[in-house]
Fold Voltage-gated potassium channel.
Amino acid sequence: MVIVKGIISMRKRIYEIVDIAKKTDKSSSIYDYTMLLIIVASIVPVCFKTSNVLFIWIDRITVLAFILDYIFRWVTADFKFKDKGAKSFLLYPFTPFAIIDLLSILPSLTALNMGFKLFRLLRLNKVFKVLKILRYSKSFDLILNVIMKEKQALLAVCYLAGGYISLSALIMFSVEPDSFNSFFDAIYWAVVTLTTVGYGDIYPVSNLGRIFGMVSSFMGIAIVALPTGIITAGYMNELNRSDNKSNR
Amino acid sequence: MVIVKGIISMRKRIYEIVDIAKKTDKSSSIYDYTMLLIIVASIVPVCFKTSNVLFIWIDRITVLAFILDYIFRWVTADFKFKDKGAKSFLLYPFTPFAIIDLLSILPSLTALNMGFKLFRLLRLNKVFKVLKILRYSKSFDLILNVIMKEKQALLAVCYLAGGYISLSALIMFSVEPDSFNSFFDAIYWAVVTLTTVGYGDIYPVSNLGRIFGMVSSFMGIAIVALPTGIITAGYMNELNRSDNKSNR
Amino acid sequence: MVIVKGIISMRKRIYEIVDIAKKTDKSSSIYDYTMLLIIVASIVPVCFKTSNVLFIWIDRITVLAFILDYIFRWVTADFKFKDKGAKSFLLYPFTPFAIIDLLSILPSLTALNMGFKLFRLLRLNKVFKVLKILRYSKSFDLILNVIMKEKQALLAVCYLAGGYISLSALIMFSVEPDSFNSFFDAIYWAVVTLTTVGYGDIYPVSNLGRIFGMVSSFMGIAIVALPTGIITAGYMNELNRSDNKSNR
Amino acid sequence: MVIVKGIISMRKRIYEIVDIAKKTDKSSSIYDYTMLLIIVASIVPVCFKTSNVLFIWIDRITVLAFILDYIFRWVTADFKFKDKGAKSFLLYPFTPFAIIDLLSILPSLTALNMGFKLFRLLRLNKVFKVLKILRYSKSFDLILNVIMKEKQALLAVCYLAGGYISLSALIMFSVEPDSFNSFFDAIYWAVVTLTTVGYGDIYPVSNLGRIFGMVSSFMGIAIVALPTGIITAGYMNELNRSDNKSNR
C-alpha cells in the first residue's frame, strides 16, 4: 500500500517535472532547458553533410535522452488526461507530440543497429527532432491559437487559393505545354508566380502564355495573399486583446 | 391534363435535383457530388501530355454526363427564372454558366467525330470543364460577392494599375529599346516587375533603364498593390459581418 | 465694341469646350473624347521600333491637333485663373500640364523639320504625349488626392526608405565589392531586393555578403513597404469617406 | 573661480551648439548642417572602388572634424546625463552613438598612419560613418519609437519567423542535399524564398524538394510577413495619434 502510494506520488512528481514548467518549479525549468539543449544538440549533425565520431556519439546520447523522456511522459499520461483514467496510457502514443517524439527516436535506433547503412534514407526522418522544440515555444502556441480561431476563414481562403493555383496551372499547361515537362511543373510555376517569389527557373515564353501569365498574376496575387492577410489581421487582434487585458 | 401535370412535376423534381442542393434533399446532394466527381475525372486527361485509351473513354463518358446535365438544366430553365415564363428557355443558353457548360461539351464532341485530329488545337477549350466546378464552390461565391460589392473601387484601381503599367512600359521601351523585342515585351516586363514576381528573364541593363526601373518600381508597387488591398479589406469586412450576424 | 464682346464670348465658349466637360455640355464631351483618341493615336507609333509613312502622317496630324489645343488653352487662360487677369497669359505656360503639352509638341516639330534624323534621340520625349491623358483621368485625380493628403507621412517614409536603401547599398558595396561594378549597381541591388522584385541579375555570392543580404532584406522589407501601406490605407479612407457621404 | 565659471559656461554653450538644434538657436543649426555635410562628404570616397588624392584629403579633413566633434561631445557629457555628474565622462564613450563616432574615426586614423595599406580590410569599418547621420534623422527617431513600442510583439514575431526559416531550411537541406553546398545555403534559400525576393540563384530541382518548397512558401510567407505587418500597423497608429493631437 505504501509502495503504491510512493509510486503514485513519484509519478506525479515526474509529471510535474517533465511537463511544461510553472515559473516557481525550479526542477521543471531545469528539465525543460536541458531538453531544449539536447534537442538543439541532436539537430547539429543534421546540419552537416558528412558524419564523424562526434556526431555519432551526439546521436547516441541524445536518443537515449529522448527515449527516457518518452517513457517518463508515457507512464505519467494519466495526469495529462485527468478524466480518462487507465485509458490514458492507450491514448497517449497517438497524440501529435507523442508521434513526433517517437519519430525522433526511431531513425536513430535503426542507426544504432544497422551501422548507418540507411543513413541517407533516414535523413528526412531526423528532421522530426526539430519539431520537438515546438512543445517549448510560446510563439508557436500564439500563432497556433490564431490559426485555430480563424480556422474556418483560413480553410475557405486556402481552398480558394488552392483552386486558383490549380486553375492557373491547368490553363497555363494547356496554353503552353512545351515549357512544362508535366502538370506538376505547371503547379510549381503557379505557386512560385502567385506567391510573387518568382525564381525564374520556369516562366512562359510564348506570347499567349505570357498574356495569360500576366492576367493570372494580376488577378491571382490578391487571392493567394488572402491567407497572409487573415493571419496578420488575426495576430493583430490577438495582440490588441491581450494589450487591453493587461491595461485593465 | 394528367400527363402535362406529371411532366411539370417531374421537371420540377429534376430542377430540385440538378440545382444546388439544400442540405435536406439527399438526391440533390448525391447529384452534386456525382457531377463534381465527373468534372474532376474529365479534367484528369488534360493534366497529361499524352493520350491513351482510358483517357478517350473518360472523355466519352464525361461528355455524355455533361450533355445530360446541360439538357436537364435547359428544360427546367423556367424554374430558375421564376417570372420570365417561356422566355426562360431562350435566355438560359446565354447565362455565363450555360456558356461554360456548352464550351465544356463542344471540344469533346469534335473529338468524338474527328478522331482527335484537332486534339492539340482543342487543348485550351478543354480547360472550360474546370470552370464548371465554380458552380459548386461556396468560396468562389464569397469572393465574387466581395468583388461585386467593391466593383466600383476595384474598377477604378485596376484602371489606375493598368494605366501605370502601360506608362511604365512605354517609358521603359523608349529608354531602352534594345532590351525589348516589342512593346509587348515591355508590358510583360512592367507586369512582372510591378507585381514583384521578378522572374529575371527581362530586365533593364543600361544605367538609364535601371534608374527608371528603380523609380518605376518604388512608386508603382503601391499602385499595383491597391487591388490586392481592396480585395483583402473587402473579404475581412465580409467575414466580420457574417461573424457579427452569427453572434447575435 | 461689339467685336470685342464677340471675341470674349467666343473665347469663353472655347474655354468651356476645351476644359474638362460637365456632363450636360455635349460639345465639351465630344472635344474631350476626340482629344483622348488623338492622344492614343499619337502614342501608337511610339509602341513600334520601326517607322513608316502611316506613322509619319499620324505624327503630323496629331501634333497639329496638339498645337491647336495648346493655343486654345493659352488664349483662354484668364478663365482658368479667374482672379489673375492679364497675368494669366504669362503664368499659363508654366503650369505642369502646359509644360507637358509643350513637351508633347516639340519633338514632333523637330521631326517635321529635320526629317527624323534625330528620331532615336527624341524617342524619350515622345513619351510626354501619354502624360496628356492624365488630364482626363479621374482615377489619377483620386490617387493624387490621396498622395497630397498623406504628403507629410509619405515624405517621411520615402526619406526613411531611401535612407535604408542607401545604407544597405553602402554596406553591401563595402562587404562585397567584387559583385558590383559601381556604387550604382549596389543601389540597384538594394532596390530590387528590398522591393522583393529580385530579378536575380545581381546578388551576393560571398558568405559575408549573403549574411548581410539576409539581415538587410529581413529588416528592410518592412521599411520599404511603408509607402505602399500608407497609400493603401489612405486610399481606403478616401473610399470609405465617399461611401459615407453618398449613404447620407 | 572666474576661469572655472568661464569654462563651465563655455562648455554649456558648446553642448547647446553640438547637441541637436532647437529651431531658435542658429549656431546650433549651422553646426548640425555642417556636420551633415561633412558626414556626406566623408562617405563619398566609400562609394568608389579606386582612391585618389582628393579622396585622401577628404578623408583627412573629415576625420579631423569627427575627432573635434567627438571631443566636444565627450567634454560636455555631464550636460547630457543631467543627474550623473562626473560619472558622465566615464559613461559617455559606451553610449551607442559614441561607439559609432569612435568607429567612424578609427579606420581613418590607421589610414593616416599606415598609408592605406590596410585600405581593403578597412572598407567595412568606413561604413560606420553613415550611421552618424541617424543622429540627425527624425524619421529614424519615429521608426525607432514604433519598434520600441511594439518591441515585445516584434520579438515574438521575429522569433517565430526565425524559427520557421530554420525549420524550412533544415527540412529542405534534408530533402534535397544536392542543391545546397552547406546548411548555410539552405538558410539563404529559405530567407530569399520566404521574403518572396526569389533571386533564382538557389532553388529546389527534385520533385520532393519542389513540393516541400511550395508548401513551405505557401504557409511561411504569412509568418515571415508578420514583422512587416506589425511595423506598418504600429507606424499607422503613431501617425493617427499625432494627427489627433495636432487636430485638438
